[in-house]
Amino acid sequence: MTLHLLDTLSGETRPFEPLDPTNVRVYSCGPTVYGPAHVGNFRSFLFADLLVRYLRYRGFPVTWVMNITDVDDKIIRGALADGTGIAEVAERYTTRFLADAATLRMTVPDVLPRATAHIDEMAALIEALLARGHAYRTDDGSIFFRIASWPAYGRLAHLDPAEMRIGERVEADEYAKDDVRDFALWKGPRDGEPPWETAVGPGRPGWHIECSAMSMRYLGTSFDVHTGGVDLVFPHHEDEMAQSEAATGDPFVRTWLHCAHLQMGGEKMAKSTGNIARVGDVVAEGVSPRALRYALIAAHYRMGLSFGPDSLHAAASAVERLDAVWAALGGYPSDAADDAALDAVLETARRGFEDGLDDDLNVSPALAAVFDLVRELNRRIAARILSTADAGRARDVLADLDRVLALLPDEDALEPELAALVEARAAARGRREWAESDRLRAELLDRGIAVEDTRDGQRWRRTEARHG
RNA sequence: GGCGACGUACCCAAGUGGCCCAAGGGGGAGGUCUGCAAAACCUCUAUUCAGCGGUUCGAAUCCGCUCGUCGCCUCCA
User: Helices A86-103 and A73-81 sit at what angle, rounded to 10 degrees?
Assistant: First the structure.
């Protein structure tokens, strides 16, 4: 099988065929940096991460672009509120975003363009739209996209423009649009708002134009995949597609991918309702970053996913299970001969993993294949039928699959002080001084090192998370 | 009001016509191993897939209706 993806626009699941096999181009709608992103936002970023990782695992070179929206109403409001500039606010939360992303082991995008650094590209796009008759100016210097000029409008969201409820709260009164459904490409200058002097006049960009300008700047007028949360389908991506195609005449995106919302307490996680959890807070509560990553990627991206203490606990246990085999395989002394059946076990796991992900990135069966492998490996370790070389090969396969999952523990050496405690504990146990060895074991656990005894002596692994 | 998704064990969650008397993870019960603990392994925990009809040799999977949950139509990942 090959990778198949379900495209929002066509509604079809199709084999993935890159426009250019030597450079798969992926664009993901990134954060608007007016505050810390919450874990719901990260679900969508990590789903894109999973896609990019899997494309690379499958051998495709990928260029991944994720924008940073660093100018918009909320940032302006936030800057006003705490008396700093919008650049400061944007910088603060961009830094925070990148730190959280790193915590969650998100692949660093190849390009992280900032909107404010691409104003000229936006202006050029708007000029093209004006020239082609798809946009018009209003008295205050704003420029709008004329939906009536674009018959394809509504195709992505599968909405009929005529049936759309006209937003009562839209800025219809603030800006004099020809049609309330028309959307802003450019907002004329206003007091208290940062103005840019551009070819289309002074003002600031509308939201949608940012993504069109930045994606096409780095990926061309047509590219392979565009990702985002379902809430972006309309109006953001609908508008983006309309303005991009109206400006260039080229089909904008080959495959649109949208992930479902993260649910917490039965409803979607959203800043507007305050129903949120943040990466920093969750980690501060003692959840390991890898467990959090697991909790956010372990379900198919188009399915609603519930988030909460239960899901985090299950995720933490699952990750520990991975850690346990990983550690067991690492410290596996054996004089057994090679296990003739191991290759088949490894191959079955790899096939199950790939078959799952090939099916529109369905991680559930992929993870099932991994855990089936884990059990097979544990059985063999317990039965001592693996050779040391076998253990190494099994580890290599796990590590290879982990290029996609990114859940395995870091391979770092133990700090000297802790290493000394581990040795002391082994020595005490060797002398059958149970009280002392138990004390050292407890102390090590307290410092994040779990020590376990096996027939071949003790072994240790990091635990990361506290347990309550 | 329009559009759409979903409803599988105690919880999360695969499976979308026969390999399903239904993966995987978590939780629970019992057992093995062990100085103890932990990990691991073994057994058990859905004759059943929201409910009711229908199509079919055959349905969790297709069709219809009913009930329920969630989302989009407005800033939003």
Answer: 110
